């Protein structure tokens, strides 16, 4: 490589790339966290039993015979609850939500991180994925404004598994820098935090 001609070892170059990787990811997190401090009313992503009851009752209205066995089998709390819970849980992984929460740099690095875990069948990685899933599952039962912040940090932690992809190739680290610039631009034009916040006021 070019730098090795000037006496810079490959190890030092890789350490510099690794440092740059974490600095860019951390900077993106901090920038989005700063923007989110202006949110006065977060969108609620919560599984509620009252929604299950409401869904069952609304579905039975359209049944010709709401008291029939078929209606009771397909429209009841036992079958509706898992469906609604799955909807809330998967909503944390929708592309639009991820883009608004962690930006292009987060969405792509997390995707590469998950792909790396699955490809290498890393036990630590799979445990990490399971832990993040449990965190998101826990958040589906909560009604706190910190939910989105916890989801942001939790999901972005999966980016660490993509470090080898970006550090081991000079062109990939250039791609990461470009993603960071695009993400900051994206955060600037989506300062009102769609998919995350109902009302935001910068102070």
Would you kindly provide a written description of the structure presented here, covering whatever features stand out?
By secondary structure, the protein is mostly helical. It has two domains: 14-45 and 92-200, no CATH class; 49-81. The chain has helices at 10-36, 49-61, 69-74, 77-91, 95-120, 123-139, 147-156, 163-167, 170-189; strands at residues 39-42, 197-200.
**Could you tell me the number of beta strands?**
2
Task: Report the biggest beta sheet as strand number plus sense, adding barrel if it closes.
Answer: 2 strands, antiparallel
- Range of helix content: 55-70%
* Structural classification: mainly alpha
Determine Rg (CA atoms, Å): 22 Å
Descriptive keywords:
203 residues; mainly alpha
Short summary:
By secondary structure, this protein is mainly α.
Helix and strand topology:
Blueprint: H1 10-36, E1 39-42, H2 49-61, H3 69-74, H4 77-91, H5 95-120, H6 123-139, H7 147-156, H8 163-167, H9 170-189, E2 197-200
Antiparallel strand pairs: 1-2
Helix pairs in contact: 1-5, 1-7, 1-9, 2-4, 5-7, 5-9, 6-7
């Amino acid at each position: 490589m070019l730098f090795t001609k000037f006496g810079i070892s490959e190890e030092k170059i890789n350490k510099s790339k690794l440092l740059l990787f974490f600095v860019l990811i951390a900077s993106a997190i901090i920038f989005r966290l700063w923007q989110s401090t202006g949110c006065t009313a977060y969108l609620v992503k919560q599984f509620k039993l009252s929604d299950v009851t409401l869904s069952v009752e609304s579905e039975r209205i359209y049944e010709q015979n709401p008291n029939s066995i078929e209606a009771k089998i397909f429209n009841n709390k036992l079958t509706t609850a898992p469906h609604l819970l799955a909807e809330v849980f998967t909503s944390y992984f929708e592309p639009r939500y991820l883009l608004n929460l962690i930006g292009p740099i987060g969405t792509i690095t997390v995707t590469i991180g998950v792909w790396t875990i699955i490809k290498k069948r890393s036990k630590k990685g799979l445990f990490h994925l399971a832990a993040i899933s449990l965190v998101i599952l826990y958040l589906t039962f909560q009604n706190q404004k910190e939910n989105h912040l916890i989801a942001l940090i939790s999901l972005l932690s999966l980016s660490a598994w993509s470090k080898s992809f970006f550090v081991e190739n000079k062109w990939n680290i250039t791609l990461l820098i470009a993603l960071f610039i695009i993400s900051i631009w994206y955060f600037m034009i989506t300062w009102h935090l769609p998919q995350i916040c109902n009302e935001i006021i910068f102070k």
